[in-house]
Amino acid sequence: MWKLIFWSVTVHAAFQFSPIVAERSVQFLTGNCTFNPKYFTNFTLTIVDNMMNMDMHLNRPIQRGFKANLDIQLRLANAKNFQSVFNQKNDVCAMIASMKNSLFNIWFKDMTKNSNFMYNCPVEVGHYYMHSWRMRSSLTHKFLIPGEYRGLINFFYGKYKTKSYEEALSLSIDSILSN
């Protein structure tokens, strides 16, 4: 009988008190980029005070068929190398036009608050920027566990890593996700 009462009180107490869950945070560490001068006159990526900044000058329009390969990688504790946990290829123009609630679209919508990025294709020749963008905790997907991450994003035309592949821009962003 006492065991039943103890169990009942313990279970009841467990459901009455919820543990304090710290808000997730993302700390940007480094960002690097390379660009094809056929598409960009300039592209810079900087991280200052945990905020990402991009400035670019597009010297030819971005049109349908412009694609992105996003590879999110995690480095486990005591590991030397990063391992891919998520990899996806998308047609950038089609994705922006549809504006579904995918991970990419949620990030893009949030980035546009601090930028002059276009919502449609073709994206005309000109100067584009994103200043002082911080990844908020609500923008981290729940499947990502706390740890050290690297995001690799390749923008290209053609078919990925074949003879028709033509890279326009490559970004690498390192960060730490904490609870």
UniProtKB/TrEMBL annotation:
It comes from the Eukaryota. Residues 1-22 form the signal peptide. InterPro entries: DUF1091. Keywords: Signal. It holds the Pfam family DUF1091. This is Uncharacterized protein. It comes from Drosophila kikkawai.
